[in-house]
Amino acid sequence: MAHPLGKYADFEGLREQAIALRRAGHSLRQIRDELKIFNNDILNQLVKGEPPPEWTKRPRAKDDLRERARELRLQGWTYDRIEAELGCSRSSVSLWVRDLPRPERRSPEGAAAIARKGWEERLRLRDEERRRTKEEAKQAVGDLSDRELFLVGVGLYWAEGGKDKPYDRRENVTFVNSDPGMIKVFLAWLSLLRVERDRLRFTVMIHENADVTSAERYWADLVGVDAGAFNKTILKRHNPRTVRKNTGDDYRGCLVIRVLKGADLYRRIEGSWYGIVLGADSAT
After folding, report:
1. How far is the C-alpha of 8 from the C-alpha of 86, rounded, in Å?
2. CA 74 – CA 89 distance, rounded (Å)
3. One domain, residues 129 and 208
4. What is the extent of the structural domain holding 181?
5. pTM of the shown model
6. How far apart, in Å, are the Cα atoms of 28 and each of 9, 22, 31, 62, 261?
């Protein structure tokens, strides 16, 4: 009578080999490939009673997520809500709970409320990720050396400052920006270059229908100068046909910073910028 295992008639010999491989730390897939056992039932019989090696076991954290996903599904949660709550992929959630009954269909209003809650949770998680990424990047910068601040300032000016043109000679230093952080960095850079504060002139540039007085006070406090020392504010005419985004209480216009007797400084800035360009070319 033929052995029920067919071509695996030498079952005991195969089992000895399979157990030896199992105890040596092999996975079922590795044992299958080594012994050419492609019948899963027989493969499981060969290693029956032998515990799998630790490295093949799933992490406990994954098991906890799976159990939590199943609990939520039994409470009637949808895939979207479970995915947003646990931060797992849709495919993982589907794999973990697909044997459980589907939640009862809700009214359109209830379904919409649940969908809205799930979307709000996704937005919250995205906002947290944004904040975390920005905070990590901020902390990674650390203190700036004088050389680093110098290079940052040159690039900052060449991107945002006034520049000389062959058809319009303007070898002066004028910087305009609405970002208070940019203004702070630019002033720190001027201080590094030993530009005296009495050589600086400040002017607010803002739309005429904004809170001009508040904006003047804001910029004066930022740069540490009395608002009365500012030049006359430049008012931009309001065009009612233009739909402006820069409105509201936080709109403060731009601050113009001009350095008196700045021709030599401008030439140094331009020369330094082209030095940065050459350095970047040589680095590639």
Report:
1. 46
2. 19
3. no
4. 146-283
5. 0.57
6. 20, 8, 5, 21, 80
